[in-house]
Design goal:
Elements (H helix, E strand, L loop, with lengths): L9 H10 L1 E4 L5 H14 L14 E4 L7 H7 L2 H10 L5 E10 L24 E7 L11 E2 L8 H4 L11 H8 L4 E2 L7 E5 L4 E2 L9 E9 L9 H4 L2 H4 L4 H6 L33
Antiparallel strand pairs: 1-7, 2-3, 3-9, 4-7, 4-9, 5-6, 5-8
The structure holds 2-oxoglutaric acid.
Length: about 280
């Protein structure tokens, strides 16, 4: 397995293009890792997901970038921005920002890709996902599993269950790909970056400790985002964030006019007292 580890993301971008994923080994600084761990120690409640995708033994904290500057710094890390620049069109968006804590006893997630809900034929380039290890990832504790090269698969190869449930069950699919998948084993602080079309899943946690991770995902500027950050992040708070984060949250225009607010640039909506022109009398 190759490891991208420096500020030059050329090799990492090539790996994502060729095999569907890359690993940035020393992604978080020691300070960032300690800060994230402190937050998760205070904030995880044991509240778990509502289905086998979210995970019945998995806790997720969404809109994570609202929970401190450290999370915003991780979202706009220069290495990830370089990969987004390489894979996505200018004005790309943050589509989700979450913590994923897989507790002992969790079963594997269904195999999936993070762009399954966009009805555009595969292969496609719609988004880029990151999973950042907050604990060491192993095959036993639920380290992310990926199917190398599956970013190149077409709709037929991916099978039915992930589109319409008609041609192949989840169990049949899991059996078909069993000898093609690998568990990403990486130290805490490392980050796996993959094309959203790469098939992957959170693994089963058969260990006796949680496997904690962060996942920030980025999408093309012309698709709908998973999280609706316009409603989760108050505008006064967005106004305190960096211009890059503001743009990632949708306070940008994708030319010629996607994202406009009553004919104005959406960044104007961050001025206190902004009133969309349609309401001005
Ligand atoms: O937790 C993981 O390792 C992967 C999670 C994932 O793929 C997802 O929730 O979409």
């Amino acid at each position: 397995m190759n490891h991208a580890n420096d500020l030059d993301m050329t090799n990492a971008a090539r790996e994502i293009q060729q095999q569907g994923y890359t690993i940035i080994k020393d992604f978080l600084s020691a300070g960032q890792l300690a800060e994230v761990r402190g937050f998760l120690d205070r904030r995880t409640t044991g509240f778990t997901g509502r289905n086998n995708f979210e995970g019945s033994c998995t806790e997720r904290i969404y809109a994570l970038l609202t929970q401190g500057k450290v999370f915003q710094d991780i979202v706009e890390d220069v290495r990830i921005m370089a990969l987004c620049d390489a894979f996505l069109e200018p004005n790309y968006l943050l589509t989700t920002s979450q913590a994923i804590c897989i507790f002992p006893g969790e079963s594997p997630q269904p195999w999936h890709c993070d762009d399954a809900f966009y009805s555009i034929p595969r292969p496609r380039r719609l988004a880029l996902s990151t999973v950042i290890a907050i604990d060491d990832f192993s095959a036993e504790n639920g380290g992310t599993e990926v199917i190398p090269g599956s970013n190149h698969w077409n709709d037929e190869q991916v099978g039915g269950d992930y589109r319409d449930g008609e041609t192949e069950t989840e169990a049949d699919f899991a059996e078909r790909v069993a000898d093609q998948s690998i568990a990403v084993e990486m130290p805490a602080g490392a980050c796996v970056v993959f094309a959203s079309s790469t098939l992957h899943r959170g693994g089963a946690n058969t260990s006796d400790s949680p496997r904690r991770a962060l996942s920030n995902q980025y999408c093309q500027p012309w698709v709908r985002t998973i999280e609706n950050f316009f409603l989760t992040v108050p505008r006064e708070e967005v106004a305190t964030m960096s211009p890059k984060i503001q743009s990632l949250l949708g306070y940008s225009v994708h030319p010629p006019f996607m994202g406009q607010v009553s004919g104005s640039h959406p960044a104007k909506a961050l001025d206190p007292g902004f009133v969309p022109s349609v309401y001005r009398r």
